[in-house]
Amino acid sequence: MAFEKLIGQEDVKRRLSAAVESEMLSHAYIFSGPDGIGKMTFALEFAGLAMCGAPVNGRKCGRCRACQLGESGNNVDLRIISPEEKKTQIGVEAVRTQICDEVFKAPVFSRKKVFIVDRADKMNESAQNALLKTFEEPPAYTLIILLCDSVLPLLETVKSRAVGIEFRRNTDSEIIQKYRELRDESARSGSVLPEIDTSLLCAYADGLMGRVGELCADGGELIRARIELVEKLSDLYAGKNGAKAAISSIIDVRNKNYDFAFFSMMSFTRDAMLIARFGSKTEIMNPDLKEQLSAMARDTGYYRLKNALTEIDTCYRNLARNAMPELATDNMLIRIAG
Ligand SMILES: [Zn+2]
Fold first, then answer.
1. Is 323's pLDDT higher than 90?
2. Ligand 1 centre from 337 Cα, in Å?
3. DSSP state of 147
4. Domain spans in the chain, listed from the N-terminal domain onward
């Protein structure tokens, strides 16, 4: 079967494989599901299959020009459209020039010409209407895949002309399988990813494969930073100088890679609260850090930890729509400092 290298989403695999094997591809698909669930990974695999000149039993042949170019990421017959940097929308001009005009140029090396629209829910109404014209009479070689968190912002007329494919959150065992796969891959290339407790991994991933990838990126930098973070957070609660600046640089809101740091600060604080309330035998999310967290519980006390947890949680939830995330984070750190 196709998609065999990808973990989970069995229903999606079955439907897409059946379409490829029966050569009954629709000209448009909508992949929906939360960020990080693996829509782009599946879309690229699906595109590769559709473009292959000689698929064998629903698998890419790996030898044709389309497959070889696809392997190196250089197949001009695959186009990816996404909101421009710093723009929150995909406008009508982008859809016209990158899809509507391009669609009439036949594929050069491949069986299909594929357009993947990332964050398709960011297309404004006129962009969607422009796309609709292409949806109505596309050349036979066209395959358009729209990726979106939610189908709600899409016009009914767009939705009704495409096949909807819904992605579901992965199970914990699929998440663990993915982590092991990335760890083995990393070991083969000579680097060792730091260990992460499986219950912590699954709690953070929350069914999203992308989050596992995020944790394993750059040799597991985020997992390593977690140890430094627990020390600095203890220092902050104890009112030590320099702790705030150190935490700010670990959180790194500027690079938008702050989810795990916030998740960690909340889980440390919650664990310390539990220890403060129920003693050190209570079950916590970060058992490997029990010693530090017990000290944090003793030195900070239940009520201060509880207030800190509320502050961190509120700050995190508002961060994505905050115009000055660094300032908001700094203010939160000042409020929770000892
Ligand atoms: Zn091929």
1. no
2. 59
3. E
4. 10-166, 172-336
